[in-house]
Amino acid sequence: MLIYARFHGRGGQGIKTASRILGNAAHLEGYFTQDFPVYGAERRGAPIVAFTKITDEPSTMFDRGYILNPNLILIADDSLLDDPIVNPLAGLQSNGTVFINTSKSIDRLTRDRCDIRLVTEDLIDLSLKYVGRTILSTGLGSIAAKLTGIIRWSSVEEGVKEELLEIGIKGEILEKNIIFAKVCFERVYPSPLPIPKIVKSSKIVTISWLPPPITIPEVRNIGNTEIRKTGNWRIFKPIINLEKCNRCGLCVVYCPEGVVVMNSEGPEIKYDNCKGCLICFNECPVKAIGYLREVETS
Amino acid sequence: MMRSKLIAELRPRREVVSTITKSKMLTGNVTAAWAARLAEVDYIPAFPITPQTEIIEKLSEWIALGEFKAKLTIVDSEHSMLAAAGTASLTGARVFTATSSQGLLYGFEMLYNIAGWRAPIVLVNVSRAVAAPISLEPDHNDFLSTRDSGFILLQAETCQEVLDLILLAYRVSEDNRVLLPSLVNMDGFHTSFTREPVKIPEIEEVRRFLPKYTQQLPFRASKPSAKGVAVLRPPLYSFYKYQMHLSSINAINVFKEACEKFEECFARRYDVIEKYMLDDSKYAIVMMGSYASIGKKAVRILREEGVSVGLLKLRMIRPLPSKDIRKALEGKKAVAVIDQNISPGLGGILYSDISSILYNSDNKPKVILPVIGGVGGKTITLDEIRYVVELLEKYANGGEPEPILLLREDELREVESLLRIGVGE
Ligand code: SF4
Ligand code: SF4
Questions:
Q1: Distances (CA, A) of B360 to A212, B284, B365
Q2: Which residue, judged by its Cα, is nearest atom 4 of ligand 1?
Q3: Do B169 and B330 meet the contact criterion of CB atoms below 8 Å apart?
Q4: Residues of A with CB below 8 A from B225's CB?
Q5: Is the CB of A53 under 6 A from ligand 1?
Q6: In angstroms, what separates the C-alpha of A216 from chain B's closest C-alpha?
Q7: Per CATH, is B2-219+226-266 categorized as 3.40.50.970?
Q8: Is CATH 3.40.50.920 the right assignment for the domain spanning B273-417?
Q9: Calculated CA dihedral for residues B96, B102, B105, B111, nearest 10 degrees
């Protein structure tokens, strides 16, 4: 038995904690487990990935690092599906399971890959309902544990408790999280996961010297941040009410992404790149900026 | 007799365009300052530290007198100094700076950055043993700590070599095939404060040798770019680092080319290594820096006594000219590497480099003997080198020599009496 679970999400969504909840719960069940996150420069919204490996045979755990051949994938943010750099379904084994947190229906996925099982839930909606804020880690970890088919609720509950205490969450919020995790655990059902096949990689190449400047780590193609459409990082979308706005320009100044521009009609948010941090909402002195959950706006 | 032979050796092979330059008595430090002046550097960020300070004092004096036009800035630390040096170089300025020992280590992090930015500065390090315990005298632990940073590492023996290697370093570093910074090392006191005759070339001659530095893509406020960017994809990081390695390897041939041009301009010949009475010798000792002068003298005396020994002086440490070193040492019965440094738990640093070069050779020496000598500026006498050669003869047919420390009986007595003072007996 070997479970290779890979979690995809964005910084701030609790991906690492989710993978640890799964790791801890499996450990409490008596399996050999390993969990491990990879993140770049830490910023909320940037894609991150985490891994949990579970086995009943310790010799198969002589392994470390990235999972290239997962049999279980958990995606915390459906916008990642279209991100070519993240490519969250890469290596998913035939008959493997993919879980996606989404409020949309994503049939096209199974149209492209009819050999995989797709499970979806709207975790944001559930977490708002049960916890009162958008917190994904507990729900995602709990769903992952259930989808393995080898972990009981009691271990998940214990795992959630330990992991949340570790990051300083206790008391009422912890209790709410356990309820949220329980609800999630009961909503999904496992199906057998295939044994991951070893991935064959492409051949080793020879690198020869190349003349500068191509080999110097610098970026000369300035203004290229616009190319990276970070608009899909948003969970909440800021909306300016131009009638209330007094054109003070503070939102232009405070927006860390530089995506609010002052036009002749007033400030305008470039939604292709707005990450939804809501700093503009907090800074606007006349409360002319409000926000909606992204799904409600489309 | 000696003198005439020396002059004969120095006679240029080709027609020399250079005017006869008179020599002057100069310290290694003042020579380094001359090299910076002759290279017409634009910018010198500086921070004082013994035994390097004389270099920047001389440069600032010339600037104050209006004899030399450059911008010299005293900054708050070696870390800032090196940051300023690297970034200024990226704007297209030719940059010179100097440090020593603790200073080099304090700015250490920036060395990897400067190399990674591919900023072709020249940094002079005046070797001084690293604390603790505190010392002012030289050994090569400071210099060799930089060996994986991406800098081109060159070691000078004489004051003349200090001048020449700095000029060569600019030419090699700024070559597009290399585009990596250089560190030219000289030994504190034994070169830095030692005066000997140095030929200072005319500026026109230097200009003929060293073309103007042009940064292909200079950093400009009006033309922003991001240098030294974060590379969050591991394969891209591997790629950049490997390209640095390949560029460093290029520096071996670029240096050899530059040496030819150098000989044409100044009638002095250099190579990546220097062989002294080595080609026909049975035994070899490997040394570098100012102590190689002592080694050469010992070799000459031992030769007169009929001992078949020669000396290999290392000049280029990174890139390591493996082929040249292998060729020079292949066929020797036994080789001793005298490391003027110590890597606790290993022994000498260069010993590993030399051994790894020879390991795959079919004609490798039977034994390579690791010797630690001259650490903390401890002198090495003729008899110490004689002892090393005797060990080579002993091990000529094989054996497993342990690293040895060169320390004499009289020195041990001195050590013991100092230790007694220290503990209050
Ligand atoms: S939410 Fe407001 S402050 Fe944040 S990126 Fe969008 S426009 Fe800028
Ligand atoms: S901060 Fe508020 S009031 Fe000021 S320009 Fe922006 S939206 Fe208008």
A1: 33, 19, 11
A2: A277
A3: no
A4: 218-220, 222
A5: no
A6: 7
A7: yes
A8: yes
A9: 0
**Which single residue is written with the structure tokens 């030719």?**
B94
Q: Which residue of B has its CA nearest to A211?
A: B177
Reported ipTM: the value is 0.83
Q: Where in chain B is the domain with CATH 3.40.50.970?
A: 2-219+226-266
Domains and CATH numbers, chain A: 2-187 (3.40.920.10), 229-297 (3.30.70.20)
Best A68, A215, A220, A221 member to test B by mutation, with max B CBs in 10 Å, is A215
Number of Cβ within 10 Å of residue A210's Cβ equals: 12
Q: Which amino acid is at B111?
A: L
- CA distance readout (Å), B304 to B38, B310, B329, B384, B394: 41, 12, 22, 17, 20
pTM assigned to the model: 0.86
Tell which residue, B203, B211, B251, B185, has the closest CA to residue B94: B211
Q: What b-and-e string marks burial along B276-303, b requiring 16 or more CB atoms within 10 Å of the CB?
A: bbbeebbbbbbbbbbbbbbbbebbeebe
Can you spell out the DSSP letters for B19-85? PPPPEEEEEHHHHHHHHHHHTT-SEEEE---TTTHHHHHHHHHHHHHTSS--EEEE-SSHHHHHHHH
Per-residue pLDDT of chain A (298 residues; tens, 9 = 90+): 999 999 999 888 899 999 999 999 999 999 999 999 987 765 667 788 999 999 998 877 678 889 999 999 999 988 888 887 789 999 999 999 999 999 888 877 777 888 999 999 999 999 999 999 888 999 999 999 999 999 999 999 999 999 999 999 999 999 999 999 999 999 999 999 999 998 888 999 999 999 988 899 888 887 777 887 888 778 789 999 999 999 999 999 999 999 999 999 999 999 999 989 999 999 999 999 999 987 665 5
What amino acid is encoded at B107 in this protein? G
Alpha carbons within 13 A on the beta-carbon side of A137: 24
Residues carrying CATH 3.40.50.920, chain B: 273-417
Of all residues in chain B, what percent are helix, strand and coil, respectively (each to 5)?
45, 20, 40
Instruction: Look at the block and give the residue holding tokens 């630690």.
Output: B372
Are B122 and B153 in contact by the 8 Å Cβ rule? The answer is: no
- Whether residue A37 has a cis bond before it, omega within 30° of 0: no
Q: What would the DSSP string read from start to end of B109-146?
A: HHHHHHHHHT---EEEEEE-PPSSSP--S--SHHHHTT
